[in-house]
């Protein structure tokens, strides 16, 4: 359930009910009511008897949170793993050398500095540094994670990246109708795109970047404008 | 030739390479503010249980002097208790205020200080830094006439003819002023006058708050155009 | 920059292979300068330059001070170029890195040392008082080309600025307020424009992300139709931040409309053939002419806006 009124930091919220879980953008000091600390829309999700509320807000700086899918650049190699940068000027996160599919003492992943990886945050405590993994640690399978080869990366705002990842967009299907392409969306606002040739990658990147400030309808128009003349698959 | 706006003109998200930014234009004063963070902090600036706030105020011409340091310090006073600094400990939030038009001579700091506070508040919200409320500031001058009349948001000329100048910042929670954050006064004034200043500042802050709220509501709907 | 922009091998490879096909991410041709957006503010000597996503504001101000002892007939001129973290979080506040220092020197040489501003006209009383002109460059946003943008901004702001008129009454110097006498424009001797060229070695392009250094040296790929003396280098004009982080070598040429080369700076990197420099100078000349015309056009527009209410245009310029 969404509400269309904008919530600003400090605003009083309508009664949330007792059995609600507070999500991002809300803060509750002991013995007081929860208050919004970010600007955005109040969102509610009902799940059986309990529900959760959070503020859907936009920003450009990513703060790691557990289970987030992210794309990062390897910036350093250490004895027991790699250092991955999720965003310029942000603290780097740890990526263990065994956090890959089929990785063991004999078979260690060999990523050069500058490699692009797609993974998942496994630990994000505010007092210790964050950690990520490039496989599904429950099954031991890659689950789509791992090193990303080729392609190009665009940086978009975090709310837009979340929207593309969770809700999808007619934009992506519109592109897919014209050309085949591969995409990986990180919740840190990085979107990786790969397509058969450079010009296509470049045009898809432009579509995604520009659509951030367009409505869904306009973005579909943009796709047909930019990618028209391309062969259908 | 200077353009004076009687209502605050504000916009957010104007700079592409930082996390949050705002432009604030009120009267003859215009400032631009940028906020980046929470990001990596240098070990020597790291605070184990709180966010490090780095504040820089840059003058319109020349190098920073003690005057800018004073503005930085007062800005810190106004912001530090509203920014929820323990949510992202061991990280850095960088705030840079660039004065574009001072709107006052270098003897005074009140217009620039009020504009710095208002623009930082907007840029902090734009960047998504957790805040417990909104900070809103206004400047007031007491004129050197027989009635010692009070002027909210004084102009350059009003300030030249004033006996004292004041900056008052309130924290607004749920559309109401909640807490007095800052009252910075320069010049000669009596105790009653300070109380009057605080009272009248509410009216000035309300005007500013309406503009801040409008700007931020616009920002949010612009952020989610694709919804 | 104290902190480097971290660019993944994927992006690096993609950008370089686009360049090899003479394409760029922003859709420009490789020898195309970004569109210069120049605006003047309400106060005199306030110029705002936008070059793609790079944005800066220059403020020129004047005050009366004492001339240097060894140059009693000259005024003083200071340019401050301090990049704060407003431009990008990669820049540090209150501390300038080597790159920033280099940039400051380049701008100094381009404008101050090329005598673009006639310092002798700033003298009020020889050895006693003179005008001190300062140009403060405020960087708002960084996306490459800071030197080129700063140069345009500083020179445009200097041309836009008017200083108060002065007269001498016996021993006293009188500074007339703007209301009293029409302020005087600065005497600008020429309009230097900086154009920065970036060189990319294409045979350095890594073949895959697996092995970044698996390049075969001297494989001799020719850059598509790019007229460079060095066949393996791609010449790119007005690089963005990403391109700046990837380039192998850079060259800045300062030139004016009279075809005077004021400086050629090539700090380090790969060697460049003499013919390439000539080529660059020719390209720089064309760009400089366009930008100079743009500055004059914008100044004229601003002038007519300011004079909108006047029957006779007010000026303090003397026929020489």
From TrEMBL, chain A:
Keywords from the named record:
Cytoplasm, Exosome, Nucleus, RNA-binding, rRNA processing
Exosome complex exonuclease Rrp40 N-terminal domain span: 20-61
GO BP terms: namely: CUT catabolic process; exonucleolytic trimming to generate mature 3'-end of 5.8S rRNA from tricistronic rRNA transcript (SSU-rRNA, 5.8S rRNA, LSU-rRNA); nuclear polyadenylation-dependent rRNA catabolic process; poly(A)-dependent snoRNA 3'-end processing; TRAMP-dependent tRNA surveillance pathway; U4 snRNA 3'-end processing
**One of the record's GO cellular component terms:** nuclear exosome (RNase complex)
Q: Gene3D superfamilies this protein is in?
A: 2.40.50.100, K Homology domain, type 1, Nucleic acid-binding proteins
Q: Which GO terms describe its molecular function?
A: RNA binding
Classify the source by domain of life.
Eukaryota
| Localization annotation | Cytoplasm; Nucleus, Nucleolus
Q: What name does this protein carry?
A: Ribosomal RNA-processing protein 40
Please spell out the taxonomic lineage of the organism that makes this protein. Answer: Eukaryota, Fungi, Dikarya, Ascomycota, Saccharomycotina
From TrEMBL, chain B:
* Chief location of this protein within or outside the cell: nucleus
Which InterPro entries does this one have? ExoRNase_PH_dom1 (IPR001247), ExoRNase_PH_dom2 (IPR015847), ExoRNase_PH_dom2_sf (IPR036345), PNPase/RNase_PH_dom_sf (IPR027408), Ribosomal_Su5_D2-typ_SF (IPR020568), RNase_PH (IPR050080)
GO cellular component: a single term: nuclear exosome (RNase complex)
Question: Keyword set for this entry?
Answer: Exosome, Nucleus, rRNA processing
Looking at the record, the residues that make up the Exoribonuclease phosphorolytic domain are 10-130, 133-204
The compartments listed are: Nucleus
Which one of the record's GO molecular function terms can you name? RNA binding
Q: Which GO terms describe its biological process?
A: exonucleolytic trimming to generate mature 3'-end of 5.8S rRNA from tricistronic rRNA transcript (SSU-rRNA, 5.8S rRNA, LSU-rRNA); nuclear mRNA surveillance; nuclear polyadenylation-dependent mRNA catabolic process; nuclear polyadenylation-dependent rRNA catabolic process; poly(A)-dependent snoRNA 3'-end processing; rRNA catabolic process; TRAMP-dependent tRNA surveillance pathway; U4 snRNA 3'-end processing
Which Pfam families is this protein grouped with? RNase_PH, RNase_PH_C
Q: Which family does it belong to?
A: Belongs to the RNase PH family.
Q: What is this protein called?
A: Rrp46p
UniProtKB/TrEMBL annotation, chain C:
InterPro entries referenced in this protein's UniProt entry, alphabetically = ExoRNase_PH_dom1, ExoRNase_PH_dom2, ExoRNase_PH_dom2_sf, Exosome_comp_Rrp42_subfam, PNPase/RNase_PH_dom_sf, Ribosomal_Su5_D2-typ_SF, Rrp45
Please list the GO terms describing molecular function.
Answer: mRNA 3'-UTR AU-rich region binding
Output the GO biological process annotations, alphabetical, semicolon-separated.
exonucleolytic trimming to generate mature 3'-end of 5.8S rRNA from tricistronic rRNA transcript (SSU-rRNA, 5.8S rRNA, LSU-rRNA); nuclear mRNA surveillance; nuclear polyadenylation-dependent rRNA catabolic process; rRNA catabolic process; TRAMP-dependent tRNA surveillance pathway; U1 snRNA 3'-end processing; U4 snRNA 3'-end processing; U5 snRNA 3'-end processing
Q: Which residues, if any, are the signal sequence?
A: none
List the record's Gene Ontology CC terms alphabetically. Answer: cytoplasmic exosome (RNase complex); nuclear exosome (RNase complex); nucleolus
Tell me where it resides.
Cytoplasm; Nucleus, Nucleolus
Please give the chief subcellular localization of this protein. Answer: cytoplasm
Which of UniProt's keywords are assigned here? Cytoplasm, Exosome, Nucleus, RNA-binding, rRNA processing
Keyword Chloroplast attributed: no
Domain Exoribonuclease phosphorolytic positions: 32-164, 232-286
The family classification in the record reads:
Belongs to the RNase PH family.
Descriptive protein name? Exosome complex component RRP45
Organism, scientific name: Sugiyamaella lignohabitans
